[in-house]
Design goal:
mainly alpha, elongated
Length: 237
């Protein structure tokens, strides 16, 4: 039998809108008859709004009419037309016997192409043990020399959706790492570069040379004539 939706609110509606006995309502709503009597007397569930079981598909009008005619009739809940699938608990992944020999190849592919995956994630994807994963990581597996990395999706050991889910989950949990080479070519933050322009200008600054005095032509010729006359006097002597 399905579980009744909001039993106390349903009991309030049945008390107010039907001629059912307290025992019939109590049995259908899994309540005590005294509690149903308290609802009818206004001593209980005063702030609860009644829920119509006919609109919710839990009872039919014919079923209520039959129960009103026969006080010994037990109300039967109407079967729901919508089947809610029962969620299955996830257990260990089953791997067919024909594909178990391919699991080491799939593990090697995951270890090489997705090193961020944890052993527990790899175990969920291909249905293996952590001991086997550790042996393949350390190249101590008995058949490590013959292993070939093969995509587990291609081998049919895992679906692409499950693989993408585990990879994205591992990427979110992975701390951000700074690549030194990339960081060298990347732009520096503004906090580091805002004072660099002023420092460069101060280093390259050269004081301007004082402007040379303008040359006076008359003065230059006068000095030349004086030097020439002095040379002539010395030659005469």
């Amino acid at each position: 039998m399905a579980t009744l939706l909001m039993p106390k609110a349903t009991a309030v509606w049945l008390v107010d809108n039907t001629a059912l006995t307290f025992n019939q309502i109590a049995t259908f709503c899994t309540l005590h008859p005294l509690e149903v009597k308290a609802i009818a007397d206004g001593e209980s569930a005063q702030g609860i709004k009644g829920l119509d079981p006919i609109n919710t598909g839990q009872l039919t009008r014919d079923e209520i009419a039959r129960a009103e005619e026969n006080p010994d009739h037990v109300l039967k809940m109407q079967e729901s037309k919508v089947r809610v699938p029962v969620l299955k608990k996830k257990g260990p992944r089953y791997t067919p016997v024909s594909k178990r020999q391919d699991r080491p190849n799939a593990i090697l592919w995951l270890v090489r192409n997705h090193p961020e995956l944890k052993d527990s994630q790899i175990s969920r994807l291909v249905g293996t043990t952590k001991n086997t994963i550790q042996q393949i990581r350390e190249r101590t597996h008995w058949n490590s020399s013959n292993l070939q990395p093969i995509d587990p999706v291609a081998l049919g050991l895992s679906s692409q959706i499950d693989l993408d889910f585990e990879v994205n989950k591992a990427a979110k949990n992975r701390p951000a790492e700074l690549d030194v080479e990339v960081a060298g070519d990347a732009l520096l933050p503004a906090s580091q570069t805002e004072g660099m322009a002023l420092e460069d200008e101060s280093r390259n600054y050269k004081p301007a040379k004082p402007e040379e005095d303008e040359i006076d032509v008359d003065t230059v010729f006068a000095k030349l004539n004086a030097l020439k006359s002095s040379d002539d006097d010395s030659s005469e002597d």
